[in-house]
Amino acid sequence: MDWHFVFSQALTQAIGPTMLIYAIAAIGLNVQFGYTGLLNFGQAAFAAMGAYGLALTVVAAGLPFWWGIAVGLLAAVAMALLLGIPTLRLRADYLAIVTIAAAEIVRRLARSTVWSEHTGGSDGIRGFSEPFFAMSPYSDDANWSFAFVSMENGRLTVDLGIVDFQYSDRDLWIMTVGWALIAVFLVVLGLLVHSPWGRVLKGIREDEEAVRSLGKNVFAYKMQALVIGGLIGATAGFVFALSRANVQPDTFSTDFTFYFYVVLILGGAARLFGPVLGAALFWFLYNLLSQTLNQAIRAELIPAGALSSIQVGPLVFFLLGLGMVLLLIYRPQGILGNRRELMLDVR
Amino acid sequence: MLLLSAALAGLLLGLGVSSTAHAQEEPGFKGTLTDQDDNPVADVEITVTDAGGTEIATVTSAEDGTWEVPLDAPGTYIVTLDESTLPAGLLVRNARPQLELEVQSSVRTVLFPLDTQLDPDAQPPESESPSGDEGGEETEEETEGPVGGDEAEEEIDPELEGTGGAKRAVSLLFSGIHFGLMIALAAVGLSMVFGTTGLTNFSHGDLVTFGGVMALLVNITFGLPVWVAVIGAVVAGALFGWLQDWGLWSRLRGRGTGLISMMIISIGVAMLIRFATLFFVGGERKRYDEYVGQEPWDFGWLVIAPKEVYTGLIAALVCSAIGAALVFTRLGKATRAVADNPSLAAATGIDVNKVIRLVWTIGGALAAMAGVFLSINDGVKFDMGQHLLLLVFAAVVLGGLGTAFGAFIGAMLIGVFVQMSTLVVSPELKYVGALAVLIVVMLTRPQGILGRRERIG
Lengths: 347, 457
Fold this sequence. Notes:
The structure holds 2 protein chains of 2 kinds.
Chain A: H1 3-14, H2 17-35, H3 43-60, H4 65-87, H5 92-111, H6 116-119, E1 125-126, H7 130-134, E2 143-146, E3 149-152, E4 155-159, E5 164-167, H8 169-193, H9 196-206, H10 208-213, H11 218-244, E6 246-247, H12 254-267, H13 274-298, H14 309-330
Antiparallel strand pairs in A: 1-6, 2-3, 3-4, 4-5
Helix pairs in contact in A: 1-13, 2-8, 2-11, 2-12, 2-13, 3-4, 3-5, 3-11, 4-11, 8-11, 9-11, 12-13, 13-14
Chain B: H1 2-21, E1 28-32, E2 45-50, E3 55-60, E4 66-70, E5 75-81, E6 91-92, E7 98-103, E8 107-109, E9 114-115, H2 134-139, H3 165-197, H4 204-221, H5 226-255, H6 259-281, E10 297-298, E11 303-304, H7 306-328, H8 330-340, H9 342-347, H10 352-378, H11 384-399, H12 404-420, H13 430-444
Parallel strand pairs in B: 1-8
Antiparallel strand pairs in B: 1-4, 2-3, 2-5, 5-7, 6-9, 10-11
Helix pairs in contact in B: 3-7, 3-8, 3-10, 3-11, 3-12, 4-5, 4-6, 4-10, 4-11, 5-10, 7-8, 7-10, 8-10, 11-12, 11-13, 12-13
């Protein structure tokens, strides 16, 4: 058992590019679900709007990269309006069903063969990420070392003795942009939720009728929360598409949204740092479990008949699902949350 | 046509197994030529050339229809079936006797679907090609990860392809009614659970999968006939529903857990069932050992497999029985009373928790039945219930959340709509239409057909 490798992998992924996607998407969800109480189960569709908006604009329409970003954001706003206008007046579980259905429609349309010459069908689109990586200040032939940090052919290694972190130059650029985005979002949200506007949102979550009786336009506030959360979700879609250098429709399944919820609830909904902490912990645990099991199979600590390496994935997700259920039953406020603030209920 | 499609599906399944079994062998191509009645086709010439057009080998299929071409190196090759050597009347069904295929370090199965009629609307090439067609997806299963997974139920019903207008519409109507009855079995349980507890249960779709898996256990592992497996699965489903309410949901209600928390917990439960299925059953589509390729009844105006008629009739009978029980029995009246107003029902002496436990048990049994019946047609796959769930939601919302009869009507409408819509739209988009209906209903009449305005406040 190579514990050094297991923990290095787990920690590398706990702040790596994948975690950033989940953290950003969950920040968006935090605005909608955590602060406003909107059950958006279609966050994957907002991410898909961002990812496909970017990819289609750059590849199919041949427009510049920044146009792609603009189109992705506009598509997310359009989607939020489209979903919000009919459903925000309804009860919470109706919004959940509609958003889940909308996300599924988006995914099925994206993988359809009808317009696969543009969207690539279930194969998706690639070839839009080069302008992004051309902006990267990290070159793939850098060689230097300083104390425990070394750069070898663009591969950064931070060797802390007990564990080490390793990232390629492309990972580094994604992480720089991703963490910068998280910082911006957290600062802006921190200011927003402590403003009068943010207090109205929390009021809607707690008691919609009370807020309405104070003369606030509840529908408009909910719609603003949905749009802002959707925009942040689209940003997660950009990071997702760019970090993989392709978009594929089946990655935007409803499971994607559910893991955003796991991340958000694990960290603590309605807490500024909840999504970030949740995402880091989620990917740390995921990699720790799957790497440990894989190592144990390779070292033949687990008899070959009991568990094959194909079964590790389902087993780890089973354990994470179990953890999520237990967390919701025994600690619904997550790590950072405040139980009294967050009595989740239908309103 | 049905038999051919079933045989093809069986071959696709076998293909997945063989490609993994031969994973470590020398590269090459192999295949078995059979006609639409599964008879082997011998003495057909198959030529393999490399990408540049240089011929590598020409083989003829053996007495049992098999052929094999070993290769020296992995790469892209062109496999051509010489149609002039086919027996009179036979043609390659998808009109693609020439396939460009990539082979890695394994023997790759190439499938030429043969048929007596040329069918230009048929499916894409039935070979294991990695370009993302259905055949390729069946084998290239992604068995891990929160994302991915294929759209197995988007398999085009090949028996309905290519048949002429009116006959096709009638066939689609009947398959729509059958599908609607299957949705109804699942929808009644979902709607009643919502009616009595207020819980939007996202794990109900995975109860459907559970039924299919339990029948697989009885049928394949224990080797018992399918009709025993159906009974076994329904009993197991009822038990599972009972256990879920006893071990989880009744405790949560007792703790005073909020409905939204319960809803997210139900998503967690759905993931648990799904990944447990993936763990034990694997990512491939599994079939029962009976009724896979069944000789259809041909009425001239309608071609239908007996299994669809029988499963449909049983489902219709069960739905009617449930409906009658709800209207005429004491327990049924008590259930409707709880769905209407739990506190008032409790005040009149009805044991609300007992009624809810009963609803969970029956809901689990009905969902399991839907799972087995669907799997008799399409096989069991770990995410079958997850994809069905949205249609069940569409049915329940269309009928009116919380009403059993509304759920039934909604399910029939959705089932027929999904199948009939393939007359106009491409079959892969048929679910999109149903989900769009769901959203339009939300927009215009959120209480559904039978629901009451006040429910949605």
